[in-house]
Design a protein that fits this description.
The complex is a heterodimer of chains A (114) and B (224). Chain A has 114 residues and is α+β, with helices and mostly antiparallel strands. Chain A is built from 3 helices and 6 strands. A 3-stranded mixed beta sheet of chain A has the order 2-1-6, covered by helices on one side. Chain A has a 3-stranded antiparallel beta sheet with strand order 4-3-5. Chain B has helices spanning 15-31, 46-57, 74-83, 100-108, 152-155, 157-162, 181-191, 208-223; strands at 5-12, 34-40, 63-69, 86-91, 118-122, 139-145, 165-169, 196-199. A 7-stranded parallel beta sheet of chain B has the order 4-3-5-2-6-7-8, with helices on both faces. In chain B, strand 7 (165-169), helix 7 and strand 8 form a beta-alpha-beta unit. The chains are: A alpha+beta (114), B alpha/beta (224). Chain A binds chain B through residues 1-2, 4-6, 8-10, 12-13, 17, 21, 23-24, 27, 31, 38, 88, 96, 105-114, and chain B through 2-14, 16-17, 94-97, 99, 128-129, 132, 158, 190. Strand 6 of chain A pairs antiparallel with strand 1 of chain B, so a sheet runs across the interface.
């Protein structure tokens, strides 16, 4: 259910950008989504396909999703590691003193328009 | 055939909401209104907890309440009946959270919108989505109840990262559940070392005064 709300937000922003750029029709939108955002791409695409059909200038607009891997940095030992596998605890030194450096992005990268 | 163009956007999806939330917070600061966003799972005791807090604070502050739910006006009626303060119901129309614009619309529809000291927003019961959207609130409060389990901060990290303080509710039934209070606090601190934690039981009133005193201080700090 969260995905639908998110899709509405994306479409609102695309509509604003379309108006500002004199766009007639939006053919595709590319999103960059981190792997720890909690967004499920398959659900997002289902919601997207339903929602764009309600917008005249976005009919059949394709949603392209680029994944961004989640990486955490350890302040204690300076290593970077895969967040999905190891979570908050550094696998190199077992420290909790870590922070996410990428993976929670949710960006509109670009849109293809006519 | 028309030319196809690529427009580079490179913009965070939450950017416009974040901006609107910051604008709302600035306006509230000017009006000296403290907006408290309350989040939790369904059934954690939000409405009962808020009723207790409001009754502690209502003689000192002018309070308005916004109850957000997908449907019904059960909560607004309950709060209003038990505290006497103005409570309105916001319907999210199926959405699982409130964003800054919806919060602003809610504030606009409060009868005495410019004259409150404290506006409480009871967000939709859900540990996932409300955490993603800044409502424009000054502080986020999260309620976690004993029957939900001490592991919830591990399972719903963002909620506990964005919450400035957490109330652990329903302590009266702790003996009937496998709930490790210290472990729970550790899990909250693991996600958010700065979170303040309170142990309460909204039903018996335990801890409500401490939380109310804490909120009172936050309100005075915000007005400075």
């Amino acid at each position: 259910m969260h995905e639908l709300g998110v899709v509405f937000h994306v479409i609102d922003e695309i509509e604003e950008l379309a108006e500002a750029n004199n766009v007639e029709h939006v053919n595709s939108v590319t999103l960059q989504i981190g792997t720890v955002t909690g967004i499920i791409p398959d659900y997002l695409i289902d919601c997207w396909n339903w929602a764009v059909s309600k917008h005249e200038n976005m009919t059949e607009c394709k949603l392209i999703i680029e994944k961004i891997e989640a990486i955490t940095h350890c302040e204690n030992c300076g290593e970077n590691y895969n967040t999905i596998i190891y979570g908050k605890k550094c696998p190199h030194c077992q420290s909790d003193n870590t922070y996410l450096i990428q993976g929670n992005e949710f960006m509109i990268k670009e849109m293809e328009v006519i | 055939m028309k030319d196809i163009r690529i427009i580079e956007v490179k913009q965070s999806v939450f950017a416009s909401n974040d901006k609107r939330a910051a604008e709302l917070r600035n306006e509230l600061k000017e009006k000296k209104i403290f907006l408290l966003n309350v989040m939790s799972s369904p059934g954690s005791g939000k409405t009962t907890t808020l009723t207790g807090i409001i009754n502690e604070l209502k003689d000192e502050f002018r309070i308005g309440v916004m109850e957000a739910d997908i449907d019904s006006d059960v909560d607004a009626r309950t709060v209003s009946k038990l505290t006497g303060v103005e409570a309105i119901q916001l319907h999210t129309g199926g959405m699982c959270h409130l964003d800054a614009d919806m919060t602003r619309q809610g504030i606009e529809s409060l009868e005495d919108k410019d004259n409150y000291d404290l506006i409480i927003l009871e967000n939709v019961g859900n540990l996932v989505c409300p955490a993603e959207f800044d409502t424009g609130a000054v502080r986020n409060m999260c309620i976690l109840s004993v029957p939900e389990g001490d592991d919830k901060p591990l399972k719903y990290p963002l909620m506990f990262e964005v919450s400035n303080f957490v109330l652990i509710n329903k302590l009266d039934v702790i003996d009937y559940f496998d709930f490790d209070l210290n472990k729970c606090k550790e899990n909250i601190k693991y996600r958010n070392p700065n979170a303040d934690i309170f142990e309460i039981c909204a039903k018996t009133g335990m801890g409500i005064k401490e939380v109310s005193d804490y909120i009172r201080n936050l309100i005075y700090d915000w007005r400075k």
